[in-house]
Amino acid sequence: MSGFLLHLLRHGPPLRTGLLLGCTDEPPLDAACPKLLARVHALAVERIVTSDLKRASVSAEILAEARGLPLSVDPRWRELHFGMWDGLAPATLPREALERFWADPDACPPPGGERWSDLRSRVSDAIGGISDHTLVITHAGAMRAALSVLTGLDHRGVWALDLPYGALLTLRVWPGDHLSAQVIGLRAEDMG
Question: Which of 38, 90, 110, 180 is the most buried (most CB within 10 A)?
């Protein structure tokens, strides 16, 4: 079985950067970001899937229309929900609480926020519904969760990857009882 290609694209810069945006529905700085759209314009994909948050979905709509491809909106591709920290700058948060979260995001999630394992679970469910060459426009946390689900890397392993705005991660995915993948490529020049 040859599997399918899964292209994960981090949205372009939001209007405000440097914040834990999570589920805050921040609009994109430039919905038709030429660099972002050019990066994926020639990918051989059969459909586009996007997070429902505007910083991803607005560009996805432009790209799907330009390519004449079907577009699905799937909230499972949202960023990690940072709860009470959502929309705040990390420097404004209690340092010890933030350090505990980065060290163990399951035992120490943000107050009222989502655990790392919950993000992995919903992204795993989303991947399980894909069977053809697909481009997903999403968020850095969801991309890292997908990589963790598909390769077995823990949060420390995937959080070590730099995924700036516009980063494109390509994986060959083999479906089945236990999803697995091979990393094909990563383009991570910052567009922010």
Answer: 110
Q: How far apart are CA 32 and CA 69, in angstroms?
A: 17
Per-residue confidence (pLDDT) for residue 176, from 0 to 100: 72
CB 59 within 8 A of CB 78: no
List all residues 6 or more positions away from 87 whose beta carbon is below 8 Å from its beta carbon. Answer: 19, 20, 21, 22, 24, 26
Q: How far is CA 111 from the centre of its chain?
A: 22
Q: At what angle do helices 116-128 and 140-151 cross, to 10 degrees?
A: 70
CATH number for the region 4-187 comes to 3.40.50.1240
Distance CA 144, CA 161 (A): 8
Q: Where are the domains of the chain?
A: 4-187
pLDDT for 184 equals 75
CA–CA dist 192, 166 (Å, integer):
8
Percent of the chain with pLDDT over 70: 97
